[in-house]
Prior knowledge:
It is built from 9 helices and 9 strands. The protein has helices at 18-26, 55-61, 80-101, 135-154, 175-178, 182-194, 217-220, 234-240, 247-252, and strands at 9-13, 33-38, 47-49, 67-70, 105-111, 157-163, 165-166, 179-180, 200-205.
Amino acid sequence: MSGAEEQPLVLVTGAAGRIGTYLREGLPPLGWRLRLLDVRPCDGERSVVADIRDSESLERALRGVHAVVHLAGIPTEAPFEEIVGVNIEGTWRVFEAARRAGVERIVYASSNHAVGFASRSVPLPVDIALRPDTNYGVSKAFGEALARFYVDRHAMRVACLRIGSCDDRPKNRRMLSTWLSPGDAVRLFDACLRAPNLEYAVVYGISANTRGWWDLEPGRALGFEPRDDAEAYADEVLGAHVDSDLDETDDAMVGGRWTTFLPD
């Protein structure tokens, strides 16, 4: 690519969030131009301040776009009335606006909580039944089903990333298995944006963790090669860890202690 205007343009929804911030820093050096959309402004960068349920703003934001990275949504458990508006309706509006704009590729931030009630196994395959553990997990299961529909009905190309725990560093014992480093997050999204063989894919989004129990081969099939390992932080994490009655739950199910949440 010889100039900025020749670089593919990617719309990133939820660009002001944690993962969005990692991608804002990491994707441009790899050759992507970013258009940023969030309900909060991304300071110092060209951005669109809008809600993903605003169809007119989405239409404008999608002009000239090569692909969409869809991160926007409530990132944790919440009452269903809140989840349904942003995570379910909002996700449908993003997919539909992309279809209308002729954008064929979407990288969708799903979650391990879409299969939270599944029993842990090594390696955990991606083709297990959806078993969401929370309202949030239900919304991510909806997004994966919606993606499948848009691939089959509209010939779009979609990667659904069941992200584990994406943070600067692992902060607890469970994250020694589920951590996705900032660098590996950038590599994962970059691979999914580039993969020539992408049709519909579900990929576990974690780093190459020694204690990991997720099948990384679907990601490798798209060109994702994780480089980081939470084990580098194991002594620090385990030294600060206090045994808890919830440790057994963390070890038994994919969603860990999220499976113990009770409705209000």
